[in-house]
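re: that chain from earlier
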Amino acid sequence: MKEFALGSGVGIIVFLALIGINVMPVLLLALLAAGLYFFMQTQGNLKFEQVGSGVEAASGISFDDIGGQDSAIKELKEALQFLLNAEEIVRMGIRPLKGILLVGPPGTGKTLLARAAASFTSSIFMAASGSEFIEIYAGVGAKRIRQLFRDARKKAINASKPSAIIFIDELDVLGAKRGSHSSHMEYDQTLNQLLVEMDGLRQNEDPRILIIGATNRSDLLDPALLRPGRFDRQVQVNLPDRKGRIKILDIHTRNKPISDREILHDIGRETFGFSGAHLESLANEAAIMAMRENSTTIEKHHFSEAVNKVMMGEKLDRIPSRPEIERVAVHESGHALACELLEPGSVSSLTVAPRGNALGFMRRSPREDQYLYTRQELDRQIMVAVAGALAEEVKYGDRSTGAQNDFSQAWNLAQEIVGSGLSSLGIVKRDQLPDEQLFNECREIIAELEKSTLSLLLDNKEALMNLADCLLTEENIDQSRFQEVIAI
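^ sequence. v structure.
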């Protein structure tokens, strides 16, 4: 068909030239059309990553290399059985899964899980990002989807593999709810093509195809993607707990000379809320700091410094004035003293070295991971948050702008108290509570706790001043040194 159209076009141009018509405009239009066609053809050709299969593959990723995701791994292995035991699945009349959706915050290991799934099932692995399918040219995204599925089958056949896994990261870009993009319909056409390809997957096809998608915004996905028969399983890939964090640290420090591996247990306790990516960066930064000091082993203080860097950023070159440093020392001492008095043993370290947007920082060390809080525990968190500004008030008789983030945190905690039905208002729906009533209740909660915190600091004023002087002199204070100072 293409050859016929090309021959006809050439014949028409020759005929027009023979009868004396200027064919230059026609030739220019033809060249422009050919260039546009060639450009769209090249835009439609994606180079997808092919990763070898099996544990000994080039990727070297197996489920044993992933820490802190035992529940997700267990659920994912169960879903992968239809690739491993295809005959048994058919005998039992089970409809095989077509898609698995990995849902979780960034850095929790969703891509690693997909790679490990390919190794676990000895499948061809092909990876793409949702943003790679979206172009301003109509039809390009749909063509790329078709090509991706064709390439997966072709590569599996060429490698003599029984199955292929297609991994699509950032699925919310490709699979957002249809109609949410008003500018053009390319998003919807691309999503429609993905739905068509998934519907075309059959349990008896060879090779078998499994789609694994990853997103941290499953609420944005089109309902058609999430219905049974498409992405049948949603696997939650959450932030690791304490045991998981220790395992992740152990994995990322296998090739690092640590003085005592018991250090990892303490660091795992101090890094509540860290993702796997954060922990990998932490281990790397600790090794860098040890190298800077020409240390042959990585010590605990290297890890503690790395935690501060990952949380707050690198130390800044700017040096605050002496009065500012003195005020920051008092401020951070207020946080630390209140935290220790309200929850003994919870202060990990404090510093007046500027990092990121903070002139100082007090780091807590929770004993256990905690996901539920009582009213008393939330009250204590608010008291610790406002203690910095109140310590300034005790010392100088006024406050500074350095407490702005503390007050924002205190206000959010007060709103959480109201929204959880723990305030004097009782059980309420925060969204339907009048703004003025919510404001007054939060202000009253914080005002009462400010009084309690101020009284606590005044009763321990001598310890507060001693701690501020020590922090000003030493700049950084760890947990053991902190305990010595406040015991004076």
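DSSP finds 20 helices and nine strands in the chain.
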